[in-house]
Specification:
About 40% of the residues lie in helices and about 25% in strands. The strands form three sheets. It has a five-stranded antiparallel beta sheet with strand order 6-5-4-3-7, sandwiched between helices. It has a four-stranded antiparallel beta sheet with strand order 9-10-8-11. Strands 1-2 form a two-stranded antiparallel sheet. It starts with a helix and ends with a helix. The relative contact order is 0.07. It is of the alpha+beta class. β4 and β5 form a beta hairpin.
């Protein structure tokens, strides 16, 4: 752990020049005292780091000093830099490690490509915090220690003790055998088994997590994509409602944000889109279609059309009366 931090410290000084102990501590997520100890360790190891006092002082490396890291070509580094701008690190609790990796990627480039790749990466943005309509994207917030415990148990093959809050139920302790982690639309899920039964657990609903010493009961090899597809199909087949809907193209993304799943999509004769989507239940479907007003029309099932018609009539009756 400390070795990685020392490399990150050197790379920060190489790429950004003179930095104060406060800035280094913030970047490395450690205390200023730890930074000073690391600086002393680097100097003892022969790394040419020196300090300058005064208002504009800080720590620097002697010009020309370069760490020996495996080289990457321009496109390889650019692809990793672009991927590193997404939210995956935060979702799985790997944000600090990702920042360190990005610094190593940049430093590994040949001198002639380093500036070009960094400038190019600034022109690629993956999953910003708001969409085109300035709506803030909802991302799960999970405490760091919980993410670390869950991730370690998944990767180490250990049983996991969870304090879990299921929707509509009081939190309870449960012990599961973790299989893998999946992130979908900035939401993270733990795939696991409990007493031999499949469990798909929302990471944001875990209130506490402890990795246990006992080995998890799970196969040595896993096809996570296949398991996720199977669980999605099972989830959508239980207590859900399929809706045939026609929607204005400008509201397509709004519809998809509210639906559980989309099965088919094709253009309609009048320029709108025809989609077969799934909602949690009739109430959820009615709420979602009502948000889209006249820019969407539920063609089936009949009970949804009747529910929307009744709701529209009640609104019309209310506003038809003079005040």
């Amino acid at each position: 752990m400390r070795a990685d931090r020392l490399v990150s410290l050197v790379l920060l000084l190489r790429q950004r020049g003179r930095l104060t102990a406060d800035v280094l501590a913030e970047e490395l997520e450690v205390s200023v005292r730890t930074v000073l100890r690391d600086i002393e360790a680097l100097s003892t190891a022969g790394v040419p780091v020196y300090s300058e006092r005064g208002r504009h002082g800080g720590f620097s490396l002697l010009p020309g000093f370069r760490t020996q890291l495996t080289g990457l070509n321009h496109d390889e580094a650019l692809s990793l830099l672009a991927a590193g701008s997404g939210p995956g690190g935060q979702i799985f609790g790997l944000g600090t490690a990702r920042a360190s990796a990005v610094r190593k990627i940049v430093d590994a480039l040949p001198e002639s490509h380093r500036i070009a790749a960094s400038n190019a990466a600034r022109r690629l943005l993956v999953d910003p915090e708001t969409d085109l309509l300035s709506r803030r994207t909802a991302r799960d917030e999970v405490a760091g220690p919980i993410l670390v415990a869950v991730r370690n148990a998944v990767l180490g093959g250990r049983k996991l003790r969870l304090h879990y809050s299921s929707a509509g139920r009081a939190p309870q302790w449960r012990t599961v055998d973790p299989i893998g982690l999946v992130t979908v639309r900035d939401k993270a899920y733990l795939l696991a088994t409990e007493f031999g039964s499949d469990r798909t657990l929302r990471i944001s609903r875990i209130l506490a997590a402890h990795e246990m010493p006992a080995a998890a009961e799970r196969p040595d090899r896993v096809d996570l994509a296949r398991i996720w597809a199977q669980r999605c199909a099972r989830f959508l087949s239980e207590d859900h409602i399929a809706v045939d809907v026609r929607v204005d193209p400008v509201r397509r993304d709004d519809l998809l944000d509210m639906a559980e799943a989309v099965h088919t999509e094709e253009p309609d004769a009048d320029g709108r889109l025809r989609l077969d989507v799934t909602f949690q239940d009739l109430r959820h479907a009615e709420w979602a279609l009502w948000q889209l007003g006249t820019q969407a029309e539920a063609l089936a099932p009949p009970e949804l059309r009747a529910s929307l018609r009744s709701r529209a009539q009640r609104v019309a009756d209310r506003y038809g009366e003079p005040v």
